[in-house]
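Most newcomers find our protein records easier to grasp once they have seen one. Nothing more is needed to start thinking about how sequence determines fold. Here is such a record, shown just as it appears in the course material:
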Amino acid sequence: MTGLYAVAIGRTGSGADPAALSTLAAELERGPWQGDLRTRPDGTLAAATDSERFVVALAMDLMRRGHLGLGIGIAGDEQADGAEDSPGAAAATRAWSRTRTAPVPIIVDGPAHRQAALLDAQSALQLTGAIVTRRSVPGHTAVGLMDRLGSQTEAAAVLGITRQAMSQRLRAAGWQSELAGRRLAERLLRVAAQR
């Protein structure tokens, strides 16, 4: 399995449901992974992908779920792959180990000569993740409907509220800020991974 971004996903605290990773693995196997999603001996999930959009979406999904952290590894000039000893996988493992103490558990790691770009990508992911972690349940529902339906009018109809009420709910949920943060994080991951 090869990809530009290696990821390691694991529980970040005692509040995490032990079955959460199994449920997540079943859901993620339908995603754009290149090869199989693996459960590693330490209980974390590992995979690789070339899609920064998927990495950012995964990060925000984990923040929505809570008690799960994401380590993102970028191999740099060498090909990232899913092998346990690859530079990308090693960077993802190092990154994941630091999520347990991070206020927003998304860490990006990679080559030392790219630390500024890696930190920029991590900062964008953490700022966007902070928006998601502070969102209310009604806010998550509204944003989820917008992701699926793409129309405030349709989403409002599903919720049985007016379009104006839907707009207020999305504003309170920080939906526009999240979208801007996602775009920024994708761009900064691309910069950090440039060969």
Summary: Helices lie at 20-28, 52-65, 87-99, 115-133, 137-149, 152-159, 163-173, 175-193. The longest strand covers residues 5-11. The CA atoms of residues 62 and 68 lie 6 Å apart. The mean pLDDT is 87.
